[in-house]
Amino acid sequence: MTPFVLAVDVATADVRVLAVDAGGRVLASASSPLPAPRRDRPGWSEQRSVHADTAERVLAVVTAQLGGAVRPEAVTVTATSGTVVPCSGRLAATGPALLYDDRRAEDPGSGVDTSLTLTAPALARVAWLQLHRPAERYAHAGDVVLARLAGCAVPTDTSTALKTGADPGTVSWPAHLLAAAGIVAAQLPELALPTRRAGTVGRSAAAATGIPEGTPLLLGMTDGCAGQVAAGAVLQGQRASVLGTTLVLKTVAPRPVTDPALGVYSHLSPDGAWWTGGASNAGAGVFRTTKGDLPARDEAAGRRGPAAALRYPVPQPGERFPFVSAAAGGPLRGEPRDAAEAHRAFLDGVAYVERLGFDVLARRGAQGRGPVRTVGGGANSTVWLRIRASVLGESMEVPAQPSSGFGAAVLAASASLHDGLGAAVDAMVRLARIVGPDPDQQPALASGYQSFVSALEQRGWLTTELFSRTPHPIEG
User: Fold this and answer.
1) DSSP code, position 471
2) What is the secondary structure of 394-431 as a DSSP string?
3) Distance, CA of 164 to CA of 122 (rounded, Å)
4) pLDDT tens-digit profile of 5-51?
């Protein structure tokens, strides 16, 4: 069989596995659902942590599709950023995971140092667990999967651990953040850079999955970064937009930029570049309770044209980028005249958040240029792509394999099948289509964007001072 890698994508809804060869051809794939998150208390969002069990089952399905007795060159894992899991010393889950959108640590009565909720929101969740559901150790969903495959505790990568406070420049856990969280470094995984070896597949996992014992396990990156790799946006100045349940934006910059007040952070890529961006709560998650045919709704919204009504498109109140506000969400101006305009208001709203995010990044020193590479479920809608392109004034470029799982496979291949990330992207990532702006829509959408930003400022969610102040890159 042609040399290939395996990538495990641990999302909120399911676990997916892809087998991909050096040319970017998907040889096999499978997925299995995860338990629905529990969000039965305001600000709470947790999920039964069966990520490792599910990943083993899906890996077994994929190896069976490949004919069994196959030997991948490497296995890697990507997972949703910001989700933390209470664990045993071997990084086996001992309780429910607190998901990326869990905000219980922000409650004034939680006992958590409020400074953490801005600077290291995932570490704030760890601090809440330490106070209310203490465990021997704490890790991320992807770490738990890798540990199961290795049969022992494994390191975590600096990308996955960024929102838990990791410093990618020094590859260390800052002591002052750990002190604020009330934990010590030994309670978190060791740190290493993305694509470094985390261990090898152990005997038990080999029997469960069909992957040979001793197969290398490589550290991945967050789903947002893996999505950026799938998009092929790894050169300086290139921009990526990952539109799934949430919206993750990245610009490749020469140096790191950070601004906790606006939710801006920087990941260090395997090739030494800095991927500056942020993760918004806006996205397709706003439609998760929508009944009916979404493609048909998109088509009706496309015929309707730009909405006069403005909405902030989050499924529940709260935003973390391109500004930080626990109250953000809901109507901003007017009432939709019908269902088509109501749907269009949300499509436009996500596009406005996308432009605002890129504007914020540019003002902070991460200036992008040219078309935007986009992946995620939102990239399947041509109507939405056209709206987004019209708001940004740039074409949207969609790769042939627009998934975080595929991006994780490219990352694994960059350290096993190819000589570095650039070579892997060149060999494996191909564009499927390009959607440009609609000149007829652009004037109304430009006006809508200005009204959108003004409405955010009027509510105090986005202050003029924060939005307009001079950039402050952090050297590193």
Assistant:
1) P
2) S-EEEESS-SHHHHHHHHHHHTTTSSSHHHHHHHH--E
3) 5
4) 999 999 999 999 999 999 999 999 999 999 999 999 989 999 999 99
Domain 232-468 has CATH 3.30.420.40: yes
Q: Residue 380: exposed, middle, or buried by beta-carbon count in 10 A (0-12, 13-18, 19+)? A: middle
Q: How far is CA 260 from the centre of its chain?
A: 17
Task: Give the residue range(s) of CATH 3.30.420.40 domains in the chain.
Answer: 4-220, 232-468
CA 90 to chain centre: 26
For the chain, the first-to-last Cα distance in angstroms comes to 43
The two three-digit tokens of residue 131, written as one number = 């106070």
Asked if 219 and 185 count as a contact pair (C-beta separation under 8 A), the reply is: no
**What are the angstrom distances between the C-alpha of 222 and each of 24, 143, 193, 225, 384?**
20, 11, 12, 5, 25
Q: Pick out the chain residues at pLDDT < 70.
A: 69, 291, 466-476
Q: Which residues contact 419 (CB under 8 A, 6 or more apart)?
A: none
The DSSP code for 188 is S
Q: Is there a contact between 14 and 34 (Cβ–Cβ < 8 Å)?
A: yes
Tens of pLDDT along 49-60? 999 999 999 999
Radius of gyration of the chain (CA): 21
CA distances 390 to 351, 431, 440, Å, are 9, 20, 9
Q: What homologous superfamily does CATH list for 4-220?
A: ATPase, nucleotide binding domain (3.30.420.40)
Q: How many CB atoms lie within 10 A of CB 289?
A: 7
CB count within 10 Å of CB 436 equals 15
Q: What is the pLDDT of residue 466?
A: 67
Plot region of 20 (φ>0 → left; ψ -120 to 50 → alpha; else → beta): beta
Q: Apex CA 373: angle with CA 370 and CA 379, to 5°?
A: 135
How many C-beta neighbours within 10 Å does residue 252 have? 22
Strand extents, DSSP E, 101-196: 137-140, 156-157, 191-192
Structure confidence at residue 472 (pLDDT): 41
Q: What local confidence, expressed as pLDDT, does residue 447 receive? A: 97
The count of other CB atoms within 10 Å of the CB of residue 245 is 22
Half-sphere exposure of 122 (CA within 13 A, CB side): 25
Beta-bridge partners for 266: 276
Residue whose C-alpha is closest to residue 344's, from 308, 310, 307, 312: 307
Cα–Cα distance between 116 and 177 in angstroms, integer? Answer: 8
